[in-house]
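Course assignment 3, question 2. Fill in each field.
Student: A.L.
Task: Predict the tertiary structure for the chain below.
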Amino acid sequence: MLENFEYTFFDQPIAEKFAAFAKTHNLDADIREETSPYGETSFEVSIKGSLDDEQADVLEEYYSDLLFGEQAAQFEGNGEEGALADACGVQVKLESGEYTTVAIKPEIMNKILSVLTIDELQSFLAQVAEDIENPKAGPICSRKDLPK
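Answer field:
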């Protein structure tokens, strides 16, 4: 079981939409408004209590959809070429069950997402994390446990 997740949004209606989605999955969610020292406002959606792996995966997928869809479309300076954000990242589940966010430069993320789906990118990063957490020696052609 995983506990107490937080998700960051920069638009209150989108944060409220995510919290409502969590509640439809019988999860306790609340929203906290935060202001950075630079005057930027964000909204933290906290999921209280325990989540099983399936619930965490459903939330992560919906969060990615909102973040790279509705939220990205609202960033100032976005144009026809796509979202122009200052920062972006992808969450990856580690062997311990914890999640980590891999920060990626927006220019690189736009290139990656021009050829891969979010799910493909997350799958790729999960494989990288697994191979880092569990190193494998020898040439790749002799490995028996190649990803499918």
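Instructor remarks: Helices lie at 12-24, 53-74, 106-113, 118-133. Residues 53-74 form the longest helix (22 residues).
Grade: pending
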